[in-house]
């Protein structure tokens, strides 16, 4: 038999949950939201499908085809575009914004975004033994955009003196870092015409720099020249092709000092061209607390 007390309790429970249900739901909503993919279309970081070509052995320079998919490219561009600001230049005489040497726009990309963390994980796996687990870090990704006339004059990505992270400066942890390598990934190239907006390495040479324009490959060599060309002032110039990336090693393996042959420039984008790319600068740490 159901007692009147039980009926009262039951109806109170029903009434209370009808009343409080929406409130509890609304309290939980932000947490439920954070459990769902923020892109709304259920992006899951896929296994990589890139292929690679070694351009130069010393210094090591590798061309990576299809490092990211078009969905990943456009998502990174959409994420970073509202964050863009005039690029700071680091590692030079002054860190002032608006330097003549670099006229592009840039933005640090939030590492907790699913696309950013996926690409950083892919980059970290590509680095393999270059980074020591527990000591080194993949670093923060940076979005960079060049529009008409914008360029980045010849520079290298390594610091002439290893640096202290702001966080370490605060806690007193004694370790220094430098950018051991670079992955420069083109995400978007709109109206970028032939011979503009390339990334130029004046000291880069093909693996076998024997003075002949083409290697033994013949037609295969022609195929490769879709992606880069020999620059009239020496070295190689790489075209801005969305999804493709360049990887190079900045520091000498033996002593950790910067390799001057990694000098490069982002050549000007002309007309109404827009080039958007992403930098990844993995950090190796030195010092007693590294
Ligand atoms: C590319 O050029 C076309 C034609 O001039 C123009 O309509 C379009 O807006 C340009 N795209 C960008 C991204 O500037
Ligand atoms: C580091 O090693 C490279 C390659 O052996 C050498 O060319 C360079 O001079 C060295 N740098 C220093 C500071 O010892």
Number of helices: 5
Average pLDDT reading: 83
CATH-defined superfamily of the largest domain = q2cbj1_9rhob like domain
Order of helices and strands: HEEHEEHEEHEEEHEEEEEE
Shape: globular
How many domains, in number, for the residues? 2
Named once each, the bound ligands are: 2-acetamido-2-deoxy-beta-D-glucopyranose
Strand content: 15-25%
Largest sheet: 8 strands, antiparallel
* CATH architecture descriptor name of the largest domain: Sandwich
Strand tally is 15
Radius of gyration: 25 Å
Structural class category: alpha+beta
What does this structure look like?
GO terms for molecular function: iron ion binding; L-ascorbic acid binding; procollagen-proline 4-dioxygenase activity. InterPro entries: Oxoglu/Fe-dep_dioxygenase_dom (IPR005123), P4HA-like (IPR045054), Pro_4_hyd_alph (IPR006620), Pro_4_hyd_alph_FE2OG_OXY (IPR044862). This is Fe2OG dioxygenase domain-containing protein. The protein is globular, with a radius of gyration of 25 Å. The strands form 3 sheets. Strands 1-2-12-8-14-5-4-3 form an 8-stranded antiparallel beta sheet. Strands 6-13-9-11-10 form a 5-stranded antiparallel beta sheet, with no helix packed on it. The protein starts with a helix and ends with a strand. It is an alpha+beta fold. About 15% of the residues have low confidence. The chain is 24% helix and 23% strand. It folds into 2 domains: 36 residues; 247 residues, q2cbj1_9rhob like domain (Jelly Rolls, Sandwich), CATH 2.60.120.620. It contains 5 helices and 15 strands. Bound molecules: 2-acetamido-2-deoxy-beta-D-glucopyranose (2 copies).
